[in-house]
Each structure stands twice: as C-alpha cells, then as structure tokens.
Amino acid sequence: MTTPPEPGALEWIRASGDPSQECFEVAAGEGGLIHIRQSDEPERIVTTTRAKWRAFVLGVHNDEFDHFVREAPRETEGDRDSGAHADGS
Prior knowledge:
By secondary structure, this protein is α+β, with helices and mostly antiparallel strands. The chain has helices spanning 50-61, 77-82; strands at 13-14, 24-28, 33-38, 41-49. Strands 1-2-3-4 form a 4-stranded antiparallel beta sheet.
C-alpha cells in the first residue's frame, strides 16, 4: 500500500463550472497516479492509476453514469402511506 500524498504538495483542480464550495478536486501525482478528494474533506484522498482514471472519464463522456444523476420519480404522500415505491412495486 502506498502512502497518501500530502494534500498541500499537489496542484488540485476543480471543475470550473461548479460554483459550490463542496466539489470534487483532482490532482496528478508522482508515478502516474491520480488523486481525487472532496473539497469539504481534503484529508480523505482516493488514489487510482492514470489508466483507471482515463477509463472512468471515457465512461462519463459515453454517458455510462447518467443513471446516477437522473432524478428519481418523487413519492406522493399516498405512496408513503401505502408503502408503495416510486417504481410501482
């Protein structure tokens, strides 16, 4: 297991279109490693290889993760009372 980098030793990049204070930040490190963190928890860093990061980014470009951001149908008060789920089950 590798030792995580010191957060201050990396040049962190965040999406330019994200106006919020809480967002993902990415940094390239030594040995071709890519480091990812949340701006509101900068001490918690996830590290991956450049090849895995590339595969992830290509997946995002190919809409492979869109189902994570689509809004689920909202429950009505009647659904909650009857125990029904938004998917009809």
